[in-house]
Amino acid sequence: MVKLHPNYINKEGKREYVILPYEEFSLIKSLLEDFEDLRDLREAKKTEGKKRGIPFAKVKAELGIA
Hints:
- The chain is of the alpha+beta class and 66 residues long.
- The chain has one domain (7-63).
- Helices cover 53% and strands 17% of the residues.
- It has helices spanning 22-48, 56-63; strands at residues 7-11, 14-19.
- The chain has a two-stranded antiparallel sheet.
- The radius of gyration is 21 Å and the shape is elongated.
- The two termini are 41 Å apart.
- The mean pLDDT is 95.
């Protein structure tokens, strides 16, 4: 669980902005990127279904990467 230490900026009596310590912001950003990667992976698996993948060694050989 991420423990946040937000500071709020109010406008006309309502919270309008949040300020977070940079380390907390960076952690949240990283977690969101991981979540997006996981979502994309799940979507790709659903879209591709039972199609066979290409072995990594073959991809490396085709790209000329040793």
